[in-house]
């Protein structure tokens, strides 16, 4: 009979003592059935000599250190077939025996998530040890299913899920959660929801807050906002569930994906006024939302809260902020963009970002910076496909009266396959006319014909004005005759000479 420590049992037939033996932060409660003090002392001494059922803090630290060392060695391997040899050589079986709850195995798999195929090979090796009286735990299967999802091997994930039921004799919520997550990660929304239905019908399990958080992510990624909000409402109305930080961050991420800025902010304010406060991940999500929505003021205030983290680790957010500045009317946007550009490594080239910078510099009349970005685009085989960007470029050359640079740009754009438009050639003709380079202006007609741009009324008007301006009336009149011939002039037209 169990009693409080140091108290004698009321059972008259067999006096019973509970003795507490301290061992680190744990206590071992030993039931001793004896009236003889000598036998009690001997048994206590024996147990304190070999506390094999306990793991002390020192042992835990040692296990973690060994797991870390083994993971580091496996991460250096290039051949997945060498994983088993490392595990055998490093006596990982001993680690498994020292952590019967599977924590050492789960920790090792977690540390190998950067190489999921290697982690799955570790799990395959681990399954073979189950025959050596080291049974597998549900948490190990859960981790392996998640890793299979990361490798996009859904068949393997499903196979591990079924194997877990056979091996364990039952299914657990954490294993269900992992399969739902694997389906979500690979875009199988309907299958993820189907597994959730199986979990709800399983009499031995019930959904946890982790389950609902995964569902929120499923619906958020698919922009099924109504479903996402229904799940959040279920959590709020439940007596057994409470929203966590992950819950709110997932909902905010869903609103960002759906570009629902008002609801994104209302969820954030709910966190600020509630018991679950925003963390760094929340602010990063809000920063992304403000950047995409073009809310420069709030983007900048949020950036100040997480500036160091963003500058050092969140290159994508830096790029999103630059994009927001490019589309804004902020008078100081060039300086702010150039400050942010310092945090983007040279190898992080993004074609769309370079095109945005070209258009920005064109709009601001920064010809040197624009030419530098254009040259970078040509070197990287980036192709501009929008006439808006092309017109911004030629307008910048026109404002700066850089006719030769415009000519060189058009020649390179033709060669690189950029989007050509009639405005390119009209601008070149106007600038040639302003510099009295009339022969070159006339030759542009041949260039237009080569790229299937037929001359229009505007084309001939540019030539007419250029000839008339410098007093070459005969050429101007011949151009006027060509316009009449092609039907570009009527009796209602009038030309002021």
TrEMBL record:
PPR repeats lie at residues 172-207, 244-278. One of its GO terms (molecular function) is mRNA binding. Keywords: Repeat. Gene3D superfamilies: Tetratricopeptide repeat domain (1.25.40.10). The keyword Translocase does not apply. PROSITE patterns: PPR. InterPro entries: PPR5-like, PPR_rpt, TPR-like_helical_dom_sf. Belongs to the PPR family. P subfamily. This is Pentacotripeptide-repeat region of PRORP domain-containing protein. It comes from Asparagus officinalis (Garden asparagus).
């Amino acid at each position: 009979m169990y009693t409080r420590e140091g108290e004698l049992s009321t059972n008259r037939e067999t006096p019973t003592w509970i003795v507490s033996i301290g061992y680190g932060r744990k206590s071992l409660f030993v039931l001793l059935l004896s009236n003889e003090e000598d036998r009690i002392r001997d048994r206590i001494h024996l147990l304190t000599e070999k506390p094999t059922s306990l793991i002390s803090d020192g042992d835990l630290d040692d296990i973690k250190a060994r797991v870390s060392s083994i993971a580091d060695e496996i991460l250096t391997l290039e051949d997945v077939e060498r994983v088993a040899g490392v595990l055998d050589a490093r006596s990982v079986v001993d680690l498994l025996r020292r952590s019967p709850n599977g924590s050492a195995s789960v920790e090792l798999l977690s540390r190998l998530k950067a190489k999921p195929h290697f982690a799955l090979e570790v799990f395959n090796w681990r399954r073979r040890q189950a025959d050596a009286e080291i049974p597998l735990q549900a948490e190990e299967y859960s981790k392996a299913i998640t890793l299979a999802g990361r490798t996009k091997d859904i068949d393997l994930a499903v196979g591990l899920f079924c194997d877990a039921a056979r091996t364990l004799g039952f299914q657990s919520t954490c294993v269900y959660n992992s399969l739902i997550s694997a389906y979500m990660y690979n875009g199988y929304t309907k299958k993820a929801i189907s597994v959730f239905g199986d979990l709800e019908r399983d009499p031995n399990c019930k959904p946890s807050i982790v389950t609902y958080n995964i569902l929120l992510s499923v619906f958020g990624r698919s922009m099924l906002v109504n479903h996402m909000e229904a799940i959040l409402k279920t959590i709020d109305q439940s007596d057994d569930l409470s929203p966590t930080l992950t819950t709110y961050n997932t909902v905010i991420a869903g609103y960002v994906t759906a570009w629902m800025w008002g609801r994104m902010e209302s969820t954030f304010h709910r966190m600020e006024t509630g018991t679950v406060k925003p963390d760094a991940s929340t602010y990063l999500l809000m920063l992304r939302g403000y950047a995409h929505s073009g809310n420069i003021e709030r983007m900048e205030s949020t950036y100040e809260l997480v500036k160091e983290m963003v500058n050092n680790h969140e290159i994508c957010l830096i790029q999103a902020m630059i994009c927001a500045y490019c589309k804004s009317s902020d008078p100081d946007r060039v300086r702010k963009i150039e400050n942010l550009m310092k945090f983007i490594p040279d190898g992080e080239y993004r074609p769309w970002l370079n095109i945005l910078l070209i258009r920005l510099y064109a709009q601001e009349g920064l010809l040197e910076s624009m030419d530098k970005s254009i040259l970078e685009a040509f070197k990287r085989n980036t192709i501009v496909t929008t006439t808006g960007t092309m017109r911004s470029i030629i307008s910048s050359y026109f404002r700066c009266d850089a006719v030769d640079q415009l000519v060189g740009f058009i020649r390179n754009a033709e060669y690189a396959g950029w989007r050509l438009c009639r405005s390119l050639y009209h601008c070149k003709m106007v600038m040639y006319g302003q510099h009295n380079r009339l022969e070159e202006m006339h030759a542009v007609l041949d260039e237009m014909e080569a790229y299937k741009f037929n001359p229009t009324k505007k084309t001939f008007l540019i030539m007419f004005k250029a000839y008339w301006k410098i007093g070459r009336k005969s050429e101007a009149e011949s151009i006027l005759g060509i316009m009449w011939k092609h039907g570009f002039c009527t009796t209602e037209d009038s030309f002021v000479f």
